[in-house]
Predict the 3D structure of the following.
Amino acid sequence: MMDLAVLQAVRLKGGLADASTVIWLAGGDEAAVRRSLGSLVAAGQVQERRGRYRLMPGGRDMLRAALAAERAGLDVTALDLVWEEFSAHDHTLKVILRDWQLRDGEPNDHSDEAYDAVVITRVEALHGDVSRLATRAAAIIPRLSRYPGRLEMALVRLRGGDRRFLTHPMVDSYHTVFHELHEELYGATGRDRASEEATTG
């Protein structure tokens, strides 16, 4: 299970994860995470370069197998319902993010605080459903238990005036956490994002 959490943490960060990020995302005992990461590097499933980690082909295969093994012990009916409801909110968030980044077809310079406040209110309205779904997902897959708190903290930071916490990829922004949870649900349900998006257009 620890190898699964570590492999997924490395995958989600796409080669940008350092050891502290992997430890934080994987959760659990720090020493156990470090042992797992070291073993995966030694076995060639994960590559370390200049303190950053990325999955190698063998690591991707190992992750797929680990997710399939995990899935065998899950309530897949309940999980599919969470995935379907969560995915329905994905489009809503994308529209909100578009309106945050663009205004009347031009880049939003965030000089209009009233406009930004309206967009943040829309995030807050969406958050209730997203938070409940994250909690349901964590009840089915305990290793996802950090997601409700991460989403809440991103929203708190955004409300507090730090605009980075809506979309910025280098902090634990609302979009970053939402995207990572969506990726977790894709993997947990055995779905492939590229195939699903090609089907739905």
